[in-house]
Amino acid sequence: MNKYESFVVFRPDLAEESRVQLLERFKEIIGRYGTVESVDDWGMKRLAYQIEKLTEGYYYLIHFEASNDLPMELERNYKINDQVIRYNIIRKDS
Q1: Per DSSP, what are the bridge partners of residue 45?
Q2: If we measure between CA atoms, which residue out of 15, 80, 8, 85 comes closest to residue 54?
Q3: Distance (Å, rounded) from C-alpha 18 to C-alpha 5?
C-alpha cells in the first residue's frame, strides 16, 4: 500500500449539500482500494487563472493509503464529473 494525496477543486456555484455528496462519493471510491486518512477542507479560494470563465473554486485535500490501481480509477472519476474543475493525485515518499 502506498500513501497518496489528492487535491480536488469543485465549481464554486455547487450547493454545499451537493459538494458534500460528491466528496463522499470520491471517499467511497478510495475506500474500495484503501483507506482515507484525512480530508482537509480548504474552502473557497481564488484560482491562479480563469478556468471555464470561473475565478474561484472550492478546494479539498485528501490524504489516503491505497493500492497502485486507485490513482487511475480516481482520475477517471474526476474526469467524468462536470463539477470538478481541477484535480491532482500525488504519491508521497515513504
Answers
A1: 57
A2: 85
A3: 22
In whole angstroms, what is the distance from residue 87 CA to residue 70 CA?
14
- DSSP at 14: S
Residue 33: pLDDT over 80:
yes
Domains of the chain (ranges, CATH numbers) = 2-91 (3.30.70.60)
Amino acid, res. 70 = L
Residue 32 CB contacts under 8 Å (≥ 6 apart), including other chains: none
pLDDT score for 93: 81
Q: Taking a C-beta distance cutoff of 8 angstroms, is the pair 46, 85 a contact?
A: no
Q: What is the pLDDT of residues 46-81, one digit of tens each?
A: 999 999 899 999 999 999 999 888 999 999 999 999
At 19, list the grid cell: 459538494
